[in-house]
Amino acid sequence: MVDVRDDSFYAAVGGHETFVRLVDEFYRGVATDPVLRPMYPEEDLGPAAERLTHFLEQYWGGPTTYSEQRGHPRLRMRHAPYKVNPDARDRWMLHMRAALDSLALAPLHHAELWDYLERAAHSMLNTFDD
Ligand code: HEM
Asked: Which pTM was predicted?
């Protein structure tokens, strides 16, 4: 694939297929979540799943499709319209952790990815209101 280094974390964990599996599994969880599901503006979660897949792929050294389509990530700003309180954050992390576990990556890869996702989720918190 063009522009993807063989030594990227993206390539090491299995490339596109791995990130699609991660995000699809995550959204399967979101679809059943009574707090998170209503936050997603579109009826179909497919486009949101695609944006998250592209973002994560780009972050880990894969194709830069995310920025080509969406520009600078500015993730905190993009989450400002949504109430990301501790409950929403914990639910996001629960579904993401289950999705990550389902990949059965090598322990170091699993740990590196989880460390990032956990920190990113904490950084998205934007309210303590219920
Ligand atoms: C902490 C709890 C979080 C909640 C409740 C949450 C919720 C949402 C919602 C409702 C959207 C709009 C759906 C869409 O149209 O795409 C969204 C978008 C998005 N989220 Fe989150 N999110 C959380 C954390 C994160 C984290 C930790 C990341 C990154 C690691 C992330 C990455 C994204 C991306 C890339 C988009 C699409 C941005 C765009 O280009 O418009 N989110 N999120």
From this structure: 0.96
